[in-house]
Amino acid sequence: MMDDVKPADGFAETPRERPTLKTIAYMTGLGITTVSRALKDAPDIGADTKERVRTVARQLGYQPNRAGVRLRTGKTNVIALVLGIDEELLGFTSQMVHGISEALTGSQYHLVVTPHAYQKDPMGPVRYILDTGSADGVIISRIQPEDPRVRLLTERGLPFVTHGRTHMGIVHPFHDFDNEAYACQAVQKLVAKGRRRLAILTPPTTLSYYTHSRVGFEKGLAESDATEVSMGRLTTEMPLAEIRAGMLSLMTSRDAPDGIVSISGSATIAMIAGLEAAGKRLGIDVDLVSKQSADFLNWIRPEIYTVNEDVRLAGREMGKAVMARIAGTDAAALQSISRPVWSPMAPKN
After folding, report:
1. Rounded distance between C-alpha atoms, residue 144 and residue 148, angstroms
2. CA dist., res. 291 & res. 307, Å (int)
3. Is the pLDDT of residue 5 over 50?
4. What are the Cα distances from residue 106, in Å, to 20, 50, 103, 109, 323?
5. Domains and CATH numbers, the chain
6. Which H, E and C letters describe the chain, residue by residue?
7. What is the longest distance spanned by two Cα atoms in the chain?
8. Angle 44-45-49 (CA atoms, 0-180°, nearest 5)?
9. Helix 311-326 to helix 92-104 angle, to the nearest 10 degrees?
10. What are the tens digits of pLDDT across the range 266-324?
11. Would you tell me how many other CB atoms lie within 10 Å of the CB of residue 241?
12. How does pLDDT run across 160-184, given as a tens digit for each residue?
């Protein structure tokens, strides 16, 4: 019967063995200890040796045995990025992941993205990481002024970095964008265009950068003779269809603004759709200033004044900061803020 047939000698199928440090040592002619230290970027190993070891490791598809590493060292060599699935749509997530991955390249760490529904339970992913010991460091976003995740991570002693600042008196690593400077400069741009009735679309009040953007907007107003037109309940977090409808209603009212500041590139697209549905002409009846995380707004509407928030840079900064924090660097030395950079594609005054 066919079931009794066995492979001929020398042709038995065997599973491919997983490459190990011993495999790399054999291929490079180096000792296992030297290979191990080269992969860990030890300072006493020469750059040429490190590159040779890493090249062979890549060619072999070598991956450290994470379970073994954890048993030997108590470390996972994992950095966890806790990222809300409701982050901005247009390029935000991929650019941040790309930037963090660039920072981790050549280190012993690899990135694990933990997506979650922020509105459902923002504490859930952080509690899981702490309870399971599944990461050596954590990166979190959508920061609140009084953020319970920051307090818990600080109390438990797990290294972390935040995308945004808290206002709770806890010194911790962060990278942030200067939304206060952006909003103030946006008002100045609009006022220079002769606009005097200004509105701002902000994030929800629960997020830290709401405060920063409001402070900047109000500072800009105080330095000019412009006044604010309320956006009502509209925020950057609302569904795009609701933002469009809200803008249509606002622009057909007696209180329509002639200048608008937006904190979100994707929300800006919805606002443009709403104001044009109201019969308003961008750059003629109303001017709009928007932040964006990728160059695209000026491709579709050259009339928009845009500021680019470099989310890839933010990822790199946070990746470097969390590794440095794991290594023991003081938290106060791991804080950075990106300044607004106005797009060269934006219209001139």
Report:
1. 8
2. 5
3. no
4. 18, 9, 8, 8, 12
5. 2-63 (1.10.260.40), 73-177+311-339 (3.40.50.2300), 179-308 (3.40.50.2300)
6. CHHHCCCCCCCCCCCCCCCCHHHHHHHHCCCHHHHHHHHCCCCCCCHHHHHHHHHHHHHHCCCCCHHHHHHHHCCCCEEEEEEECCCCCCCHHHHHHHHHHHHHCCCCCEEEEEEECCCCCCCHHHHHHHHHCCCCEEEECCCCCCCHHHHHHHHHCCCEEEECCCCCCCCCCEEEECHHHHHHHHHHHHHHCCCCEEEEECCCCCCHHHHHHHHHHHHHHHCCCCEECCCCCCCCCCCHHHHHHHHHHHHCCCCCCCEEEECCHHHHHHHHHHHHHCCCCECCCEEEEEEECCCCHHHHCCCCEEEECCHHHHHHHHHHHHHHHHCCCCHHHCEEEECCEECCCCCCC
7. 95
8. 165
9. 40
10. 899 999 999 999 999 999 999 999 998 878 888 888 999 999 999 999 999 999 999 99
11. 11
12. 999 999 999 999 999 999 999 999 9
Q: Per-residue b/e over 33-69, b at no fewer than 16 CB within 10 Å?
A: ebbbbbbeeeeebeeebbebbbebbeeeebebeeeee
Assigned token pair, 73: 């060292």
What is the chain's mean pLDDT, rounded? 88
Taking the C-alpha atoms of residue 176 and residue 335, their distance in angstroms, rounded to an integer, is: 8
pTM of the model: 0.78
Say which range, 30-44, 205-219, 321-335, has the weakest mean pLDDT.
Answer: 30-44
Output the pLDDT for position 37.
86
The predicted structure's pLDDT at residue 32: 85
pLDDT tens per residue across span 81-133: 998 766 555 567 888 999 999 999 989 899 998 877 656 778 999 999 999 88
State whether the Cα torsion 28-32-35-39 is positive or negative. Answer: positive
